[in-house]
Amino acid sequence: MLILKHLPVASFSENIAYINRNCSAYKADDINALVKIEIHGGVRTIYAFLQIVDDDTVVAPNQLALNNEAFEQINLPEGAKVSISVSPTPPSINSIARKIAGNILTSGEYSAIVNDIVSKRYSNLDIASFLVASGSFMSAPEVLSLTEAMVGDKLIHWDNENIVVDCHCLGGVPGNKTDIIVTAIVAAYGLPMPKTASYSLTSCAGVADTFSVLAHVDVDEKELLRLVTENRGAIVSYNNLDICPASKLIAQVERQIGITQHEHIAASILAIKMAAGITHLLIDIPVGPKSRIKSTNEAMRLRKLMEYVGDMLSMEIDVVITDGSEPIGFGVGAAFEARDVIKVLKNAEDAPQDLREKSLFLAGRVLEFDPKMRGGQGYLVAKEILESGRALETLNNIIKAQGKASQPKIGKFTRDICANTSGVVESIDNARINKIGVLAGAGQYAGAGIDLFKKVGDTVEQGEPLYRIYACNSTDFAFANSIVDAYTGYEITDDSVESQDEP
Amino acid sequence: MLILKHLPVASFSENIAYINRNCSAYKADDINALVKIEIHGGVRTIYAFLQIVDDDTVVAPNQLALNNEAFEQINLPEGAKVSISVSPTPPSINSIARKIAGNILTSGEYSAIVNDIVSKRYSNLDIASFLVASGSFMSAPEVLSLTEAMVGDKLIHWDNENIVVDCHCLGGVPGNKTDIIVTAIVAAYGLPMPKTASYSLTSCAGVADTFSVLAHVDVDEKELLRLVTENRGAIVSYNNLDICPASKLIAQVERQIGITQHEHIAASILAIKMAAGITHLLIDIPVGPKSRIKSTNEAMRLRKLMEYVGDMLSMEIDVVITDGSEPIGFGVGAAFEARDVIKVLKNAEDAPQDLREKSLFLAGRVLEFDPKMRGGQGYLVAKEILESGRALETLNNIIKAQGKASQPKIGKFTRDICANTSGVVESIDNARINKIGVLAGAGQYAGAGIDLFKKVGDTVEQGEPLYRIYACNSTDFAFANSIVDAYTGYEITDDSVESQDEP
Fold first, then answer.
1. What is the DSSP string of A409-437?
2. Which residue in A34, A36, A393, A499 has a CA-CA distance of 20 to 30 Å to A73?
3. Could you give the percent of chain A with pLDDT greater than 70?
4. DSSP-based three-state secondary structure for A350
5. Quick check: A101 and B136 CB within 8 A?
6. How large is the ipTM?
7. For residues B411 and B472, is the Cβ–Cβ distance under 8 A?
8. Strand pairing partners for B427?
């Protein structure tokens, strides 16, 4: 028996167990021995990956230390007695080898893989292997199998509703916070919309980050049911809901390996929405050369795939393909995006028109899920709701019900990035703007990010600011500065040069 | 600036950096922030993966702690001042996405990937992604590109030799320690054979483990050159030689994900042998239903692939496909296999004949690399060398030159596994025997393993011992016992039942 210790290390969702090289219960003379162990304590068994420690103060020979993730999962106090044993390789690992060899896996195999992921029998390496192996080719029925497996046991039930709507934007476009405006309009109209939002993984702000600037988003299922009953709408973090655990674990690994396949995106989105009890889902696929989806053909394939899976799961899916060629609105980063959202809802004169128009378009599509809505009228109804101020009023009610958040501190470290030539903004590189923003701390600090002063088609003078970077500390500020000079993300067509070329 | 600390944690070849959540130089409020960092100190920059710690005694806010791997690589004393910065994603990661999408990668791309692996710009997750992505399909020219990239800069030169031979067995068959006997015979004949051997990764004993029972195997390049000059042969650990670093890093990850593709096996073996300066290489592919290579067709494809790569690298390759249907010899595990080897070399009456015959066959093939050898005479020459005692004498010289090892302790915890029926041994499951041995501690302790009393074709009485398990401590003994009863790995045809069936 070993004595349990909590070593407070955060390791990106993986369970890690630390034992001393001279461990009294297990001889770890050779690091090449056992890697994956089962830890038995109390009523539950958890799985963890072993690291060997040579420092008795970190973990003594009679101790077993667990990192944050594992300690939370085992749910025992420090000092508890635990034993360890060898963890057999889960048989579903063989399915990964079968997938690498080009086979179509059965729904039983996907189910076994997802179960092993959720019970932490897979290491992050195993999850990465599965993602890459299945990423190179999955048939549509396989994506369906994966989706069904990922939905899991816990479903949110909306007993009194015939239709429960949501809207999901695929991302890759900075500043694209249409979902909050859409929720406000749709809830004001009266369709129930429990928007389950994500925090940023690789972007400057997820919808959960942006709405966190305005209200609390970490609520449980019971609270979500109450909020939607009360206001017809809510915008909450899906991470805090006890649904779809596989998708959370998979997303962590996808982020680390930086590789995301369409098949997994489709399965993950649809599984989360199924588990959240959504009956009618609008999916927005922005297409742009520097967006996540780069061509219309690619978007079309993804559309068909999601439609197929949705049909098989009896979920009504409407997929729209939109322009993702440049950032939407002016703000990039939670606080700046929240500001844009409020401006649109307030019908402010300086509200970003692209954000307003796209939100109306999407809200109109969601409204048309209502059987009572006449075809083609959604946009006009959405516009009326926005212009009348009812959308703003509804959002204020939602914010009040979820609990108003305190104002975030806007980054003190700022720098204006200026045009090095006069001309017209030809293009803005989404991926670059996102990267500069992330390095400046966006996604981590609500007050960090980028404020765009110029959009595509705007004329600029040499030396005029294109955008301003905001960082909350000097380290992040230095990170952003270290890459921005090499390439600002803006392409400016130099008119003067062109006129010289034409005599 | 942060103050360097060594946190003695062994993490399977990955560099890990630990910072305090309240780190004075970098605000790590959110674990979703930066993952991969560059650490600058002295003249060198290393890459590491960040974990966030909440315990000031493990890492204080003004410290940066590095695990064993990273601390060794940065090569600075504790207390040194270091700074950190964001590490850009290596561009070669894009090639992994291209590979997932089914593209043929260029040799430049393989070179970039291998360079990034060696410089630790890849996490183990990235390496796993690469292995799985390339594992599903690699053209023969791609395997060549990968091999060339893996060879690396450091080559061992054998200036005074025209022919330098080696023999590599693909493994998957317990007890297959032919290489040591082959080396003894070939060196006795006079061909230079610097056998670069591996420690066990997933088996009960690598050749390096087994020979460690007899002599020291961790020598450097200079020593290896001296040993082979002196005795024409040496058996050393390739891990200790400063060659082919990519293959070591890749092997660690392969072991953890439990997935090995033929293309990677081919590239890794040939790269190591190229770097070791081998000109003529014999490769033994044992085929068996429970061996690593399961069918003759599979073996044939691997043979052609290795022949192609060998030809392009101007290395002479002879591939033989052998019987891998059951364990070879009686001993499984370093001490037991070493005993078998010595019995064969001593021409002992109770020497395992299968090990002897296979060793003679392989040695004969290696000898035929010698242009002076008449075709077909290799086996007879090998047999004469073995029977005359010259092979034993040469091995004793090699052991003396490398330094005799101290006798290992044979496991005190033993259990005989007995036949539950009378009959004839129909088959022995290599994978099962290997697994039981590994759980008993083989691969980790030289004195742990399995001693087989019965081989395929032997008759057994009910209750008669089939094999004996040896473990060096109670934990390992319990691990092995926990699985052996469910399935011993032996299939016994019950003759009495058959005779009842035939009236």
1. PPPSEEEEEE-SS-EEEEEE-HHHHHHHH
2. A34
3. 96
4. coil
5. yes
6. 0.75
7. yes
8. B491
Residue written as token pair 């997929």: A319
Token pair for A87: 């963890």
Q: pLDDT at position A473, please?
A: 85
Phi and psi based region of residue B463 (left: phi greater than 0; alpha: psi -120 to 50; beta: remaining): left
Residues of chain B with CATH 3.40.1030.10: 165-402
User: Looking at domain B413-500, which CATH architecture does it have?
Assistant: Alpha-Beta Complex (3.90)
Band (pLDDT 50/70/90 cuts) for residue A30 is very low
**Average pLDDT of A148-156?**
94
Inter-residue contact B185 to B359 (CB < 8 Å): yes
Read off the pLDDT band of B244 (50, 70, 90): very high
Domain B93-151 classification at class level: mainly alpha
B62-94 pLDDT, tens digit each: 999 999 989 988 999 999 999 887 777 788 999
Which CATH number is B165-402's, of 3.40.50.2000, 3.40.50.2300, 3.40.1030.10, 3.30.70.120? Answer: 3.40.1030.10
Which B residues in the span 5-44 are in contact with A, Cβ-Cβ below 8 Å? 7-12, 18, 21, 25-27, 29-33, 35
Measured between beta carbons, which residues in chain B are less than 8 angstroms from residue A8? 53-55, 58
| Contact call for B479 and A89, based on CB within 8 A | no
CA distances from B64 to B22, B25, B39, B49, B261 (A): 12, 10, 9, 12, 38
Considering only CA atoms, which of B225, B159, B163 is closest in space to residue B196? B225
Determine the CATH number of domain A2-86: 2.40.40.20
* A53 → chain B, closest CA residue: B9
Q: Which residue from A299, A345, A23, A412 is spatially nearest to A184, judged by alpha carbons? A: A345
A316: number of Cβ within 10 Å: 14
What is the β-pairing status of strands B193-197 and B165-169? unpaired
Rounded Cα–Cα distance for residues A398 and A125 (Å)? 41
| Coil, helix or strand at residue B34 | coil
| Helix-, strand-, coil-residue percentages of chain B, each rounded to 5 | 40, 20, 40
Mean pLDDT on A77-95: 87
* Nearest residue to B63 (alpha-carbon basis) of B41, B38, B83, B47: B83
| pTM > 0.90: yes or no | no
Give per-residue pLDDT as tens, B135-171. Answer: 878 999 999 999 999 998 899 999 989 999 999 999 7
Delimiting residues of CATH 2.40.40.20 domain(s) in chain B: 2-86
B194-226 confidence digits (pLDDT tens): 999 988 878 899 999 999 999 999 999 999 999
Which one, of B327, B489, B337, B484, lies nearest residue B410 by Cα? B337
> What burial class does residue B43 get, using C-beta atoms within 10 Å of its C-beta: 0-12 exposed, 13-18 middle, 19+ buried?
exposed
Give the nearest partner residue to A128 out of B9, B128, B475, using CB atoms: B128
Could you give the residue range(s) of every CATH 3.40.1030.10 domain in chain A? 165-240+253-402
DSSP letter for A98, please.
Answer: H
Nearest CA in chain A to B130: A132
Residue B26: per-residue pLDDT: 66
- Using a CB-CB cut-off of 8 Å, the residues of chain A touching B33 are 443-444
| A295 lies within 8 A of chain B by CB | no
CATH 3.90.1170.30-classified regions of chain A? 413-500
C-alpha A103, offset from chain centre: 30
Q: Mind listing the pLDDT tens digit for each residue in A418-449?
A: 999 999 999 999 999 999 999 898 988 999 99
Q: Of A164-178, A371-385, A463-477, B1-15, which gets the smallest average pLDDT? A: B1-15
* DSSP alpha helix (H) spans, A368-473: 378-387, 390-402, 430-439
